[in-house]
Design a protein that fits this description.
about 180 residues, mainly alpha, hpI Integrase, Chain A, globular
Length: about 180
Amino acid sequence: MQQLRKQEGMGARALEFAILTAARSGEVRGATWNEIDLDQAIWIIPGERMKAKKEHRVPLSEDGVALLRGLPRLADAEYLFPNTKGNLLSDMTLTAVLRRMEVPVTAHGFRSTFRDWAAERTNYPREVAEMALAHVLENKVEAAYLRTDMFEKRRRMMRDWAKFCATTTLPALGTTVTPIGSAA
């Protein structure tokens, strides 16, 4: 994150926001100012922009709010992270940021990292992490009875995730990351 925060441009800010929110890159690239309530620290993504076609409320950490407050507001741009013409960023923009940084990962991989962090390093229930990722519960009975989006628990989780992302040194987990396509 420290290296990413040194990068210039809307693509870098969009990637940072994607990491902090554990959102899909398309959701981030399509985010508009009218979906954001900075005072309440919430991003409400309409159902038509979600993979599951269901509205998703995303609690914003202090770092996420600070990132948004620091963004330049282009006159007629509705997007949080517009390209230079005020339009939607390309679907390759976040990947291009990672390539320039020479980091052999994908933007989507940070969602997996978030899920691993929640499972390995926290006591948050599995359901809270799955809701943060806007995953649909596969168990139909469980889905029928679970009518909350656990927003306040997710708010605490996203605060803790932002703190984790800001950490510079991490103890080893005993795992290694092998880039796809490597000969390891």
